[in-house]
């Protein structure tokens, strides 16, 4: 199970709890439960005990958090590369500053990224097509509230632009999109990986 899968499960769980406490129709509650349980089964068949446990109109948010803690144990942590591997992924970058991650819960990450405010760059480590990729690009100085291309949630976004192609005449092409300025928040909001995959395909060098 990925971090984004867990985020989706958590979101669906609280949608169901809100319905338990705001919708009086038992039939409506049961229909929503059936829809949500089906989606959860599609994410992981190991969720069967959890799905049974949330079939309770008296379930509280506090109770759900306790149940979700056991589900999170099944999340595969993001495989953070060694500093030597990261240097190789960003071999064109001089004096790369790599953040320490020992204090982080890597189960919370589908990808990892950090901002270098001095150079106005964002660096990203992403598993794409079965291999770890290092991507970097410039980020603007202005943020705005809009939809992030990666997590598909409304957030404070910034324009990210990466060099994607060098032409024979010496010119080059840049591509990118608006993504969350805070990549930690982006990871916590992500409920599927389609946006991330599309974004990476756009900004990878051609």
TrEMBL record:
Gene3D superfamilies: 1.20.1280.250. Residues 92-189 form the Elongation factor G-binding protein C-terminal treble-clef zinc-finger domain. Residues 2-79 form the Elongation factor G-binding protein N-terminal domain. Pfam families: EF-G-binding_N, FBP_C. This is FusB/FusC family EF-G-binding protein.
């Amino acid at each position: 199970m990925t971090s984004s899968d867990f985020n989706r499960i958590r979101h669906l769980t609280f949608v169901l709890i809100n319905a338990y406490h705001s919708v009086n129709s038992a039939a409506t509650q049961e229909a929503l439960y059936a829809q949500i349980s089906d989606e959860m089964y599609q994410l992981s068949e190991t969720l069967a005990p959890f799905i049974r446990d949330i079939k309770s109109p008296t379930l509280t948010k506090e109770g759900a958090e306790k149940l979700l803690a056991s589900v999170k144990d099944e999340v595969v942590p993001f495989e953070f590369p060694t500093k030597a591997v990261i240097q190789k992924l960003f071999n064109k970058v001089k004096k790369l500053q790599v953040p320490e991650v020992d204090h982080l819960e890597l189960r919370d990450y589908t990808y990892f990224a950090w901002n270098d405010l001095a150079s106005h760059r964002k660096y990203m480590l992403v598993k794409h097509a079965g291999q770890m990729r290092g991507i970097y690009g410039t980020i603007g100085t202005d943020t705005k509230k809009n939809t992030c291309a990666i997590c598909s949630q409304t957030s404070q976004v910034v324009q990210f632009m990466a060099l994607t192609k060098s032409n024979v005449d010496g010119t080059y092409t840049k591509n990118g999109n608006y993504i969350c300025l805070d990549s930690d928040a982006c990871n916590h909001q992500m409920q599927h990986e389609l946006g991330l995959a599309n974004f990476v395909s756009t900004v990878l060098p051609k």
